[in-house]
Hints:
The protein is of the alpha/beta class and 248 residues long. The protein is built from 9 helices and 7 strands.
Amino acid sequence: MEPRELRLMYVVEKDHWWFVGKRLAAAALLEGVEPLDGPRLDLGAGTGAMLEQHLEQGPALGLEHDPLALALAYQRVGPRLARGHSHALPFRDGSAALITMMDLLYHQGVDVAATLTECRRVLRPGGHLLIFDSAYQGLMGPHDRAMHGARRFTRPGLRHRLEAAGFGIVRATYRNSLLAPAVIAQRLTAKWLERLRGHGAQAPASDVARPPEMLNRLLLGVMRAEARWLRRRDLALGTSVCVLARKE
Length: 248
């Protein structure tokens, strides 16, 4: 991820509707999962907001490879972080009750199959893996290059990868469904404008920005409504795909 994007994420992710909505959806999907008797791990911890939420529930650790992200996350959660790669986790077999990966598999340099194999190794029997990631390969564009994205997923495709790694699927859904038409239109427009200007004419930038306070509250209300829906039902489309899996 570009350094400017990490610094922006650190500033906005505590109250920006997109990041808050992601954490609300994660809590909704984990509702009803049996009490955890081991630590939670957040892989690709970024600047630490998801790890901070885990720490409110009990013991937790984060893994991050980017030095700037680690430094920013340290400011948020302190020394509850390790540096390393997701395809070679520095944790003991069966040591975690829950692993979360929020938009990690999407990134360049991530070996998806090896990462899922490592997650299965580190989880205790019956432990859960929660993955959120970007949906629909056709939406790859300037935003993804700024975020160093390499791939996007579909719900069937991500399910298949997890089943191939030996996981059982508990839930598989999309999220950000209500706003998906607007987001998809924006992404396709950005791709069209980039083709007009010529690829590389200017440095790519993400869609992340701090919206006006009233708009942020409105969009956060949409995210809260969607999280309430996800407590009981799946969503058939959206710009993010989410899978809760279990180590059988």
